[in-house]
Amino acid sequence: MSRIAPETSAVEEMASAHELTAADRCDSCGAQAYIRVSIGSSELLFCAHHGKKHQEKLSAIATEWHDESSRLLETNRA
Description:
With 78 residues, the chain is of the alpha+beta class. Helices cover 26% and strands 18% of the residues. It has two helices and three strands; from the N terminus they run αββαβ. The protein has helices at residues 9-17, 48-58; strands at 35-39, 42-46, 64-67. The protein has a three-stranded antiparallel β-sheet with strand order 2-1-3. The radius of gyration is 12 Å and the shape is globular.
């Protein structure tokens, strides 16, 4: 997970309290969201593809960038 905002324990607790789930959907295509971008009081959700596509432009204005796309690389554990 990566952030643009400065690292603080309060920010860490907030992020871990709201991990993205299968119910969180990409605002661009409707796929499962793995990236949450906070811009002021607004929030955008993106799949890994659209998050990477828009990262350069959004990172300039984002207050937080919560990226769980590394979960796509985890192997299934039985």
